Amino acid sequence: MELQNRRIAFKNQMILILMLFIVPFLVITVLLNLYSINSAMNDSEAQNSQEVLTQHINSIEQTLATFESFVIQTVVNDSDFNILRYDISALDAYLYTCTILQRFKCLMASHNLDITFSVYSHENSLYRQVNSDYKLDYIHKSLREEIDELFLIDFPLSSWFPVHFDNQPYLVFISGDDRARLICAVDINGISDLYTDGRDTITAITDLSFLQLSYVGDDIPLLYNCTLENDYYVTGRNPKYIIVQNDSSYLNIRFFRMTPLEMFWNRLNNTQLILFFTSGMIICLVPLVLWILRRTVFRPLEDMIGVINKIKGGEINTVLDMQTSIVEYKELNTLFNEMIREIKDLKVLSYEQALETEREKLQYLQMQIRPHFYLNCLKNLYGLAEQGENGKIQEFLLYLSEYFRNVFQEASMEISLEKELRNVKVYVALQNLTLPQKLTVKIQTKEDLARFSVPPLSILTFVENSIKHGMANQDEFQIIIKIQLLLTEGAEHYLNIVILDEGLGFSEDILKKLNCGINMQSANGQVGISNIRKRLDFIYGDSASLHFSNAKGACVDIFIPVE
């Protein structure tokens, strides 16, 4: 009752609901902005990483360009190296290589890379090297074999290229000829380790075909099989990395820099955190908004639809009762109920008018059957009077008065089956007084069926037709009337009335027309059959039916629904 007494304008109610929808929309907009901020932060992080990676690559290229220049100068201008191209004593070869490698040791002291310089003299079968630990040593036999394999293939001279020595990746630069060569090898894993800073940033290296060269761990996600879009990529699993790449055409390798990303919360400032949690709280109000919308707007409409469906189903007395505080809905509730009351009154009035019209039509149809019978009776009386049959005239008048008494009392739409059969018997008695032939009617029925109702003259009309059209040139004529109750699975049962005579039956043409429902009045004056058909339609609609056939004579089946 408190909800019904409250009054609120529909406009204000809708504004309130719309506001509750707009706020979450604004929150979503804020979230989109946060996403844009996150993307901008990623772009900035990727740009910084790309700049750092570019600096590292430039630094490496400059360092290796220094080594390359030193190697080329040694091969071209160093007399000690040129002597190694010729067959000399083992002691001289040893001393010359020591002098060359000593100069390389001095060069390596100014750099932090893990570098190995090797001297190869084919004429003196000499392999010596110096590494970043400044140790002079003969190259191991297995390593010499791997170097020899390089000389057997089409490898690039005077340029850097990645190879594996003893299952370790190296950047190699070779200069010289078949008799003597200088080899500079840089450990690629050393390059990766050198450029890893305190943020756990990882530098990975592949060749230009994405073949992995440096080892960075099994749990680090790398992209070795595709080109990065938008200049960077953010991995989808924890720990998350932002990955950038850059190619070094000078060194024929590709660098990847992987920078770990902090949690999103850690990257937001205080203002952004407050906005984020506020937006989340407002989004939680969406179920409440939907509940209010359903209770105040949708439920009254659902109640109205339910009432309309009940009225459509025939429950005309249903009343709409909207549980709402909206003014417009309350007015709609009142107007709807008033409209239903007016419709109900109009429906009752229309029904009464239609019922009166059908009664008038039915009475007209019933009266339509009687005139020719009255004329026949007068004609028969005249014939009896002309013959001086005073006794028969008296008997005829008694039967006729009883017949008129029954007919004049039968202005209703239905009479009992018992009365209809009594009218048939009276009619047959009248005909036996005037006809030369002997006419009999045999009625087969059960006593409990006499309580059912049938339209007046529905059986008598077909008995009259049988006498009129079926007994010509016959001394005796019998009509059989069978009545039975047909039970069905549904709630509606049928009373089956069969009128069967011993006449000539229906012709095929007439039979076809009768079963098709064609009006036979214009053809042969059979007003009675079409009249009965119309009255059955008026009273029972499509539930009642007539069926015509030929047995020993004409046969008519009448099916009337009963309860």
Unreliable sequence segments: none
Number of strands: 17
| pLDDT averaged over residues | 77
How far do the termini sit from each other?
Answer: 47 Å
Residue fraction in strands: 15-25%
Q: What's the helix count?
A: 16
Q: What spatial order of strands do you see in the largest sheet?
A: 3-2-1-6-5-4
Radius of gyration: 59 Å
Given the C-alpha coordinates, what overall shape results?
A: elongated
Description:
There is one protein chain. This protein has 16 helices and 17 strands. It has helices at 2-5, 10-77, 79-83, 90-108, 141-152, 188-194, 270-283, 286-312, 327-369, 371-387, 390-408, 417-434, 460-470, 508-515, 521-524, 527-540, and strands spanning 115-121, 126-130, 136-138, 161-165, 168-176, 180-187, 202-207, 233-234, 241-248, 253-260, 415-416, 438-444, 453-454, 476-486, 493-501, 545-550, 554-562. It has a six-stranded antiparallel sheet with strand order 3-2-1-6-5-4, sandwiched between helices. It has a five-stranded mixed sheet with strand order 12-14-15-17-16. A hairpin with a 6-residue loop joins strand 14 and strand 15. The chain starts with a helix and ends with a strand. The model has no long low-confidence stretch (mean pLDDT 77).
